[in-house]
Write a structure and sequence with these properties.
The complex is a heterodimer. Chain A is an alpha+beta fold. Chain A has a single domain, classed as MTH889-like domain (Alpha-Beta Plaits, 2-Layer Sandwich), CATH 3.30.70.1340. Chain A has two helices and four strands, in the order E-H-E-E-H-E. Chain A has helices at 20-28, 61-70; strands spanning 2-15, 33-43, 47-59, 74-86. Chain A is elongated and about 50 Å long. Chain A starts with a strand and ends in a 5-residue tail after the last strand. Chain B is an all-alpha fold. Chain B has five helices and no strands. Chain B has one domain. Chain B is elongated, with a radius of gyration of 20 Å. Classes of the chains: A alpha+beta, B mainly alpha. Chain A binds chain B through residues 13-15, 17-18, 46-47, 69-74, and chain B through 71-72, 75-78, 80, 83-86.
Chain lengths: 91, 178
């Protein structure tokens, strides 16, 4: 049996120069991610705080973090996570 | 980046065109000058303006964008080196410096093109001067017209303003060197 992440909700701080369209597309391109939802919750002169909801069949948190770091985003907190247990299917 | 690139392009194209206008006006008044001398001087001048434009823009834009990245780093509390933002910043600095260099070079070469024909005796020196002047005035009007279009104001008015500036410069050079 193995455990996979099905849903992640992250609180992220990003620079205003980077658009949420670019971030969401980059995250959705990651293996295991099927859907990304971005909501801007706060705006200031230089940064925006966004709430990221990532859904998929088997999300790898490290890959998500790597993409966000590449886009100069800082993960402030992991607010919600859904994990599930499933049997490994051997060929 | 687009806004800055546009600004640098127009400013430096304008510089390049006016510099060549001054050169051809001055050499015309000086008298029977070999077209190769005009060509050589003009190319040397445009290359100087071009290199100066590249290095100036590179230094200024690099400093500005480094400052901006430092501010972002301070606001986010993370290192932004090697991120896409950092790479995009570096690329935009090079592109802007390149546009700054290319603008005066291209306009100068276009303005000097009639003298290339004169150096091969295809046209006379006087004809080269007239054609060059026409090319310069058309470029000045076009630059002004373009400025008018992008600002959303009367392109014709801006075109005429830049054309008049060119005529005044040419006239002043001829009086001062005459």
């Amino acid at each position: 049996m193995t455990v996979g992440i099905r849903r992640l909700v992250l609180d992220v701080l990003k620079p205003r120069e980077v658009t949420i369209v670019d971030i969401s597309k980059a995250l959705c391109a990651v293996d295991g991610v099927e859907e990304v939802n971005v909501v801007v919750t706060e705006v200031d002169v230089k940064t925006e705080t966004i709430k990221l909801t990532i859904k998929g069949s088997n999300i790898c948190y490290d890959d998500i973090a790597k993409v966000l770091t590449g886009y100069s985003c800082a993960i402030r907190s992991i607010d919600e996570v859904d994990v599930y247990k499933h049997k490994l299917v051997r060929a | 980046m687009g806004e800055i690139a546009r600004r640098y392009f127009v400013m430096n194209a304008f510089d390049g065109v006016l510099a060549i206008l001054g050169l051809i006006a001055g050499t015309h008044i000086a008298g029977n000058v070999n077209p190769k001398i005009v060509l050589g001087s003009g190319l040397g001048l445009s290359l100087t303006i071009s290199i100066s434009g590249f290095s100036g823009a590179y230094i200024v834009e690099r400093a500005e964008r480094s400052r901006k990245l430092r501010e972002i780093k301070k606001a986010l509390f993370i290192d932004v080196n090697e991120t896409l933002l950092d790479k995009a910043t570096n690329l935009s600095v090079i592109l802007i410096a390149f546009i700054n260099a290319a603008a005066p070079l291209v306009t100068s070469i276009l303005a000097l093109a009639p003298y290339i024909l004169a150096s091969f005796n295809i046209i006379t020196l006087m004809q080269a001067f007239i054609f060059s002047l026409l090319v310069i005035l058309i470029m000045l009007f076009t630059l002004g017209y373009y400025l008018g279009r992008i600002t959303g104001r009367s392109p014709l008015k801006y075109g005429l303003i830049t054309l008049i500036i060119g005529l005044v410069v040419g006239f002043l050079v001829m009086i001062l060197t005459g």
